[in-house]
Design a protein that fits this description.
- The protein is built from eight helices and 15 strands.
- 28% of the residues are buried.
- The chain is α/β, with parallel strands linked by helices.
- Strands 2-3-1-4-11-5 form a six-stranded mixed beta sheet.
- Helix content is 27%, strand content 32%.
- The structure holds 1-O-pyrophosphono-5-O-phosphono-alpha-D-ribofuranose and zinc ion.
- The site of 1-O-pyrophosphono-5-O-phosphono-alpha-D-ribofuranose has 13 residues, from strand 9 and helix 5.
Length: 283
């Protein structure tokens, strides 16, 4: 049994639960308890505040955790990053009141900066030889300049709407952040095996995410041209249709070049193009 620590509510909760569901890990979410076991996979989910997740994993109370990179770097706990999860992207930035002119980093000299991330901020300021007064607060950092508690803030920026509604302006991006899967450094062999299976499933979901399954009908005369348009990496399946002289072509297309390739397929004579999502893809 592997225990994974997940944020109980907030920016990471929903996408983490989606990730587990897409990996076919079933959890009874009906009763909201602290610890929930899966019915079909040897894993149990421990719901915590995000700030507590790095330490919980480092100490071994949980074997795994899903945590924002910002929180993981700030806490300086000793755990392994086993996968960058590519969701909950945000950045940690310095922001100042909108009306103030910003000449560059030296503006922060002797200023008071409110933040919940003192470790990351201190490192950044030291590296840039800026002396500033770091004022640690745990919530509603963005209101501190408006109420005269600080000159500036250092906080998470995602859409940027919190800054806008507090008349603040982002002036320095200090670090980028995304969700991380972290693991305790001393997992038993048995736990490592379960982790491998989990990672395998995550890869299958991730690989399928930006891919589409595409079917089309092509007259055999047009077949060579249609096939030449398809990316050579995925050799397509070609099957005869009941109608003499026609074939059905099946292939997988990735999202980035999707519309470009569909356009070329149409002009090459592909008809009745059907596009379906792919749930999983095992490399
Ligand atoms: C962060 C941060 C801002 C907001 C920024 O709080 O403190 O309030 O998100 O997001 P935006 O740029 O999309 O407006 P969060 O919701 O993570 O809660 P927390 O501070 O309690 O962790
Ligand atoms: Zn938080």
């Amino acid at each position: 049994m592997l225990r994974i620590a997940v944020q109980s509510k907030g920016r990471l909760y929903e996408e983490t639960m989606n990730m587990l569901v897409e990996s076919d890990i079933k959890l009874s979410t009906s009763k909201r308890t602290l610890l929930v076991q899966s019915k079909n996979f040897p894993i149990e989910v421990l719901f915590l505040r995000d700030d507590d997740i790095p330490q919980t994993v480092a100490s071994g109370v949980a074997d795994l955790g899903v945590v924002g990179e910002n929180e993981f770097v700030e806490r300086q706990e000793d755990a392994d990053i086993v996968r960058r999860l590519d969701f909950s992207h945000c950045r940690l930035s310095l922001a100042i009141p909108k009306a103030i002119e910003y000449p560059g980093l030296e503006w922060f000299e002797n200023k008071k900066i409110a933040t919940s991330y003192p470790v990351i901020l201190r490192n950044f300021l030291e590296k840039n030889h800026i002396n500033a007064d770091i004022h640690v607060i745990t919530g509603s950092v963005e209101i501190s300049p408006g109420i005269g508690l600080a000159d500036a803030i250092f906080d998470i920026v995602s859409s940027g709407s919190t800054l806008v509604s507090n008349n603040l302006r982002e002036v320095e991006v200090v670090m980028q952040s995304e969700a991380l899967l972290i693991a305790n450094k001393n997992l038993t062999e048995e736990k490592k095996e379960i982790l491998e299976e989990l990672l395998f499933r995550l890869t299958a979901v991730k690989t399928a995410e930006d891919k589409k399954y595409v079917r089309m009908n092509v007259s055999n005369d047009n077949l060579p041209e249609v096939l030449s348009v398809l990316p050579s990496m995925h050799s397509p399946t070609v099957m005869p249709l009941a109608t003499e002289g026609w074939s059905s072509v099946h292939t997988v297309l990735s999202e980035e070049r999707f519309w470009e390739i569909i356009g070329k397929l149409k002009s090459a004579g592909a008809e009745g193009i059907l596009v379906s999502p792919i749930e999983k893809m095992i490399p």
